[in-house]
From TrEMBL:
Residues 160-277 form the OmpA-like domain. It comes from the Bacteria. The lineage of its organism: Bacteria, Pseudomonadati, Pseudomonadota, Alphaproteobacteria, Sphingomonadales. Belongs to the MotB family. Coiled coil: none annotated. The chain crosses the membrane at residues 32-51. One of its GO terms (cellular component) is plasma membrane. This is OmpA/MotB.
Length: 277
């Protein structure tokens, strides 16, 4: 029997719903987290290696290199200044920051950690000890007490400098010669006994005033200052300072006056003994 002709039913509509589950098939977020962890560990071990393999001075250079505010303190400085180069941006006395602000505390003890003049204050202690020894020696007699004002002690970047000054009433050498006066001999004896415990190197430098020699005289202030420096060295040797401690002697004539506005001032005639760092 044939089906009656009529309207056919509509085809069925099939709706597929796809649900996305977070971290399906484990996702990929964990890989990013793991990569961050590995990077952090690598940086940590690199830091530990740097602390153990570098010196204190090198660590200061690295720390200062990554301190943005220090860039303003040195105009025209290159990016590599101080980086493992042994010098820090804050080493100079003219900077507003102290070198001790970075890298002074470490997690490990480096192989060459022996302290330093600026880090541990040993230079100040050394200067104070020398000043005390010198004070005791200069109080030994009335003559030395009167000569104490001729001795000036100064801390410099290169070490501790002792200046033995002339004045209107005192002269280290006889006029125009390299012969020490009797008072100067006693003063140098006290100086030698004071610097004997310090084993650092020595530099002796002679200075003169600007007074010129007579025309035609072969002598000059250059040879005079150098000769007086050598005479001072010889006197220090006689009074017990070992010869191996002397690094050099220098004569600079009147080129480095102490009283700059009056080059002829007798105080410009002086002997400088530098106890090197």
């Amino acid at each position: 029997m044939a089906k009656p002709k009529g309207k056919e039913p509509p085809p069925p509509i099939i709706v597929k719903k796809i649900t996305v589950v977070a971290a399906g098939h484990h996702g990929g977020a964990w890989k990013v987290a793991y990569a961050d962890f590995v990077t952090a560990m690598m940086a940590f071990f690199l830091l530990m290696w740097l602390l153990g393999a570098t010196t204190e001075r090198q660590r200061k250079g690295i720390a200062d290199y990554f301190t943005p505010t220090l860039v303003k303190t040195r105009q025209g400085s290159a990016g590599s200044y101080g980086l493992l180069g042994g010098s820090s941006l804050t080493d100079a006395d003219t900077y507003q920051f102290r070198a001790g602000q970075t890298g002074t505390k470490t997690l490990t003890i480096p192989r060459d950690a022996t302290g330093g003049a600026k880090d541990g204050g040993s230079k100040a202690k050394r200067t104070a000890a020398l000043q005390e020894r010198l004070k005791q020696k200069l109080q030994a007699s009335e003559q030395l007490r009167q000569l104490a004002k001729q001795v000036h002690l100064t801390m410099t970047p290169d070490g501790i400098r002792l200046d033995l000054l002339d004045d209107a009433n005192f002269s280290m050498f006889r006029l125009g010669t390299t012969i020490l006066t009797p008072q100067a001999v006693e003063l140098i004896r006290a100086i030698a006994q004071s610097i004997a415990p310090d084993q650092n190197g020595l530099t002796v430098r002679g200075h003169t005033d600007s007074l010129q020699w007579k025309p035609g005289d072969p002598a000059n202030n250059w040879s005079l200052s150098a000769g007086r420096a050598e005479a001072t060295r010889q006197a220090l040797l006689r009074f017990g300072v070992p010869e191996k401690r002397f690094r050099r002697i220098e004569g600079v004539a009147d080129q480095e006056p102490l009283i700059t506005d009056n080059p002829a001032d007798p105080r410009n005639r002086r002997m400088s003994i530098l106890l090197m760092d």
